[in-house]
Amino acid sequence: MKILFLYTHNKSFLASFFYEIAVDLLKCGHSIKIFSLKKSNSNKNLPAMVEVAKKGNYISNGLKIYKVIKKNNPDVVISNFSYVNAALVSGKFLGVKKNIVWYHTLSKQINPYFYQTLLKSKFLSLASSVIVNSELLKQDLIQNYNQSENKIFPIPFWSTAKRNNITKRNNFEEPLKIGCPGRLEEVKNQSTLLKVFASMSKDIDSSLYFAGNGSDLSILSKMSEDLKIQNRTEFLGVLKIEEMQTFYNEMDIVVLPSRFEAFGLVLIEALSMGCPVLVSQKFGALNFIEDQEFLKKYTFDPFNSMDLQTKLESLFNGKIDDSDYFINIYNSSFQKDKIVKAVEKVINA
Predict the structure, then answer these.
(1) Strand arrangement, sheet containing 176-181
(2) Most buried one in 65, 175, 324, 330, CB count within 10 A?
């Protein structure tokens, strides 16, 4: 089949995932084209199957997407994020056989207005299939966007983080490094982690590191000062892929306190790097983990700060599982070959 991928081709983990999917489908015998809109339209040093056009306004971007679909005449279009609406409408006009949306975002994360929900519902109704990254998101699309259950397929991501030179961990030794990667936004719930850290840091020699940026940076920075933990709290900003891999290797534990996550790439990145992780029970990626011991020991209620503090202190005071344990959780739950087969099954349906 001729398959056209529409996503922003850059150095992010998510873009790397889509590129690897495309490469694996190419190996399966499909013809693959990737189209990406970026600030620069330079195609220098890009793989032959990747085409980049200069990003413009909503209308001009839509026209470019229409033209690339018309030019390539694909059997299948797979789009995500800002490419979806134009891909669905263009595919309808141009007679694309299978127009697949890869959808990532819970409605609770964006709190859409009624008209936004209605509009999104109309666009999604044009999709042949919708791939989501968790059962949680599937139910969201059914309940809030009136999408048919039969056309929604939960398929997880895998991590594209390189696992070379993984730091082996057996037990915590002070001073401890606690990491929290992700956008600094209210829904990510970093404020709860700050309060818990302030409460327990008096008895435990530790430092807290945030990797990421967002609208809550100034609020969280001010909060760390008010809690008198600014000397033990560091905001690292946005880290490159290589820097994130170093981050996971250096942290003694990663805490992910989000109130809602459709999936949560940071969770599987940490697991794949063998980094101990304490994660909110609201992560959609947990749907794919069957190990009950892990789910009991390493998850917490993000709306209950005492649950987070109790679990964190229990881990610091008890025996922590070694790196191989977390890598095995990742390997048993997010197998690349099974994910590729699941995607190909949707394409061939």
Answers:
(1) 233-235, 206-211, 176-181, 253-256, 277-280, 299-300
(2) 65
289 burial level (CB within 10 Å; 0-12, 13-18, 19+): buried
What are the tens digits of pLDDT across the range 56-80?
A: 999 999 999 999 999 999 999 999 9
Instruction: Locate 192 and state its tokens.
Output: 């709860």
CB burial string 90-126: b at 16+ within 10 A, e below: bbeeeebebbbbbbbbbbbbeebeeeeeeebeebbee
Query: H helices within 208-322, ranges in order?
Result: 217-226, 241-250, 265-272, 292-297, 305-317
Separation CA 276–CA 261 (nearest Å): 19
Where residue 33 falls (left for φ over 0; alpha for ψ -120 to 50; beta otherwise) is: beta
The DSSP-derived string for 181-223 is ES---GGGTHHHHHHHHHHHTTTS-EEEEEEB--TTHHHHHHH
118-165, pLDDT tens digit by residue?
A: 999 999 999 999 999 999 999 999 999 999 999 999 999 999 876 666
| Global pTM value | 0.90
Using CA atoms of 82, 25, 264, 119 in order, give the dihedral in degrees to the nearest 10.
30
Residue with tokens 């209605």: 118
Using left for φ > 0, alpha for ψ between -120 and 50, and beta otherwise, residue 146 falls in left
Q: Which residues contact 79 (CB under 8 A, 6 or more apart)?
A: 5, 6, 7, 87, 88, 99, 100, 101, 102
